[in-house]
Amino acid sequence: MLNPDSRAPGLLLGEDVQIADDVSFGAGVIVHAGTIVGAGCTIEDRALLGKRPRLARSSAAHGDVGRLQIAEGVTVCSGAVVFAGATLGEQAIVGDQSFVRERSSVGAGSVIGRGSVVDNDVTVGARVRVQSNVYLTAFTIVEDDVFVGPGVVTTNDDTMARHPPGAPLLGATLRRACRIGGGAVLTPGVEIGEEAFVAAGALVTSDVPARAVVMGAPARVVRDVPDEDLLENWR
User: Fold this and answer.
1) What is the mean predicted confidence (pLDDT) over 16-30?
2) Could you tell me which of 37, 48, 123 has the C-alpha nearest to residue 78?
3) Model's pTM, two decimal places?
4) 80 and 43 part of one domain
5) Which long-range contacts (CB under 8 A, 24 or more apart) does 57-64 make?
6) CA pair distance 178, 146, nearest whole angstrom
7) Residues 178, 88 within the same domain
8) Residue 21 and residue 97 in one domain
9) Which of 98, 183, 212, 213 has its CA 20 to 30 A from that of 75?
10) Domain count, the chain
């Protein structure tokens, strides 16, 4: 059941929500049952918090996913959808019309760009920058300080749904401080090494070593990232 709340026009709250006193709500926000919203958060117009997943009959992921937990100082922008069972770390930003699914986490200080998707069971570390229209497929791991350019696509199923029952899906692994250029495509299970650089439009079909620069389709190593471009020199 959703009940109107006087804190903002059209605000609807479910049962057993926990909302700090200084949360700012825009118009038309819906907060479903069990959601926890920490102090100093900003929830913009028509954001949807705590949505329960609706899964296909064949999905093995049925069951209670738990509460949506939003830490202090988070901003959820207009029209974003954040599912029950997700976790948003302190000062994270979820951009307009973005989509964060169940059992996923977005680390402290990270930004999910406009219209991007963080699918179920994705881990995004701290201080990550995910630009607009990115798709992080299920079971992707993104470590701290990673940059993901606009329109990047990750994938997790080589068979495109023709795998045996119970076969695992393999998302990409993006190691600390690597950078993925706009429009790159990462195939299932690839690992991008620490401080590696993937050029715009690359098709990555195999693991990328730490500090390697790769480009092309399929992507090939062309050189190493120089010392002066390492993250430690840009903090």
Assistant:
1) 97
2) 48
3) 0.95
4) yes
5) 60/166, 61/102, 61/120
6) 5
7) no
8) yes
9) 183
10) 2
Three-state DSSP state, 63? coil
Which residues, listed in sequence order, are joined to residue 213 by a DSSP beta bridge? 197, 223
pLDDT digits (tens, 9 = 90+) for 63-101: 688 999 999 999 999 999 999 999 999 999 999 999 999
Which of 24-38, 72-86, 161-175 shows the lowest per-residue confidence on average (mean pLDDT)?
A: 161-175
Q: What is the mean pLDDT of the chain?
A: 96
With respect to residue 22, please indicate whether it lies within any of the assigned structural domains. Answer: yes
How far apart are alpha carbons 45 and 28 in whole angstroms? 6
For tokens 């795998």, the residue is 163
Paired tokens of 16: 């057993």
Residues 16 and 128 in one domain: yes
d(CA 80, CA 28): 12
Domain assignment present for residue 20? The answer is yes
Same structural domain, 146 and 101 = no
The CATH number of whichever domain residue 150 belongs to comes to: 2.160.10.10
**Contacts (Cβ under 8 Å, ≥6 apart) of 139:** 121, 122, 156, 168, 169, 170, 171
> Tokens in use for 10?
């059209």
Residue 57 has a pLDDT of 67
Q: Are residues 116 and 82 in the same domain?
A: yes
Q: How many Å is the Cα radius of gyration of the chain?
A: 19
